[in-house]
């Protein structure tokens, strides 16, 4: 009986089957239990030996049952874990994905255009000194742009740059011409905000210096940028304008041909030929740093524009303040796609 029982136990493939084997041998009316119950019918001198024998069989069967049970339980658990690990039909967990901010997308577009034209891309400090932000750019102390209302001043006398133009000066002090650069970065102005004016916004500055760089190079460059942004039929418009650091100076606009209607001239930024006073201020700084004067007598053009204006039209965002208000209803629309 012990042999058949052990055989039955070994061939039980499930916990249910094992339970049936257990009932068959050691259950209340199992075969081994019955044998024990029939001990009383034996003559007393045989009982002890027979009892010991049956108990040994019972113990062997019980041990085999226990062992088989733990094997089957472990196997059942493994099977469950494994099936969970490879269940490819379960829905995936959503992963939070970021996206590029609309301003960075516009920057990427613009910078791709200027890289094609051979420009280097540089950045500069947002905390500036008066000399780089104003003085060296030919903005005298009495110029309205120096007004307290336009500038965030720091307690140590420095300021938050009001435009990216101070990088013109920093770059020229460090590098010799000829070169073509664009500067990207944040700028700050202490002014009342409205739908098209923020106190923190961005600029893309361009500066090209060399021999015989001309106003028509500037116009051709802005036109090339417009075509890169809006296609081969894009049009640009220049209007005379005053910036202390250029002469002559011009504001430029790009005709924005909107497929959804309401096409219009988009006032993008200011530009002009680098003022001789800027070259002089740069050479003064170079000389003070023990570097040769190399700028006086050269020509160059510069421009500065606000990518927010482009992004507002491109993405149909009616108020510039939405870009920086951390409202997920606005910025969340740019989640997930990186182009
Ligand atoms: C300047 O800042 C000059 N540094 C640009 C320049 C560079 C002229 C080189 C000549 C040579 P302006 O203040 O106009 O110019 O600003 C340039 C552009 O920045 C504007 O055309 C506009 O697109 C954007 N801009 C100006 N103020 C704000 C503002 N508060 N909020 C958002 N965009 C602004």
TrEMBL record:
Subcellular location: Cytoplasm
Subunit annotation: Tetramer of two alpha and two beta subunits.
Pfam name, any one: tRNA-synt_2d
UniProt KW keywords: Aminoacyl-tRNA synthetase, ATP-binding, Cytoplasm, Ligase, Magnesium, Metal-binding, Nucleotide-binding, Protein biosynthesis
Residues the entry annotates as binding Mg(2+): 247
The UniProt record lists the keyword rRNA-binding: no
GO terms of molecular function: ATP binding; magnesium ion binding; phenylalanine-tRNA ligase activity; tRNA binding
Cytoplasm recorded as keyword: yes
Domain called Aminoacyl-transfer RNA synthetases class-II family profile: residue spans: 116-328
A biological process term (GO) from this entry: phenylalanyl-tRNA aminoacylation
Matches recorded under SUPFAM superfamilies: Class II aaRS and biotin synthetases, tRNA-binding arm
GO cellular component: cytoplasm
Co-factor(s): Mg(2+)
Protein name: Phenylalanine--tRNA ligase alpha subunit
């Amino acid at each position: 009986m012990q042999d058949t029982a052990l055989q039955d136990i070994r061939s039980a493939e499930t916990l249910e089957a094992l339970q049936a084997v257990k009932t068959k041998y050691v259950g209340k009316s199992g075969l081994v239990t019955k044998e024990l119950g029939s001990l009383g019918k034996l003559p007393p001198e045989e009982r002890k030996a027979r009892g010991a024998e049956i108990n040994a069989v019972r113990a062997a069967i019980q041990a085999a049952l226990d062992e088989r049970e733990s094997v089957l339980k472990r196997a059942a658990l493994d099977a469950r874990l494994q099936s969970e690990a490879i269940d490819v039909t379960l829905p995936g967990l959503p992963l939070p994905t970021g996206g590029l901010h609309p301003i960075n997308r516009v920057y990427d577009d613009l910078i791709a255009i200027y890289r094609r034209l051979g420009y280097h891309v540089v950045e500069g400090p947002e905390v500036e000194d008066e000399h780089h932000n104003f003085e060296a750019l030919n903005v005298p102390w009495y110029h309205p742009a120096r007004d307290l209302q336009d500038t965030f001043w720091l307690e140590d006398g420095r300021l938050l740059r009001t435009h990216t133009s101070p990088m013109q000066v920093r770059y020229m002090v460090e590098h010799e011409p000829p070169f073509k650069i664009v500067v990207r970065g944040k700028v700050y102005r202490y002014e009342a905000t409205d739908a098209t004016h923020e106190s923190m916004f961005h600029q893309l500055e361009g500066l090209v210096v060399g021999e015989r760089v001309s106003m028509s190079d500037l116009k051709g460059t802005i036109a090339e940028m417009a075509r890169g942004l809006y296609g081969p039929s894009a049009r640009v418009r220049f209007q005379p304008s005053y910036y202390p650091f250029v002469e002559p100076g011009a504001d430029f606009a790009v005709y924005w041909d909107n497929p959804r209607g309401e096409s219009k001239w988009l006032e993008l930024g200011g530009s002009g030929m680098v003022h001789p006073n800027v070259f002089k201020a740069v050479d003064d700084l170079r000389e003070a740093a023990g570097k040769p004067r190399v700028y006086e007598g050269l020509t160059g053009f510069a421009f500065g524009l606000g990518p927010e204006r482009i992004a507002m039209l491109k993405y149909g965002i009616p108020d510039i303040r939405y870009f920086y208000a951390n409202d997920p209803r606005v910025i969340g629309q740019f989640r997930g796609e990186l182009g």
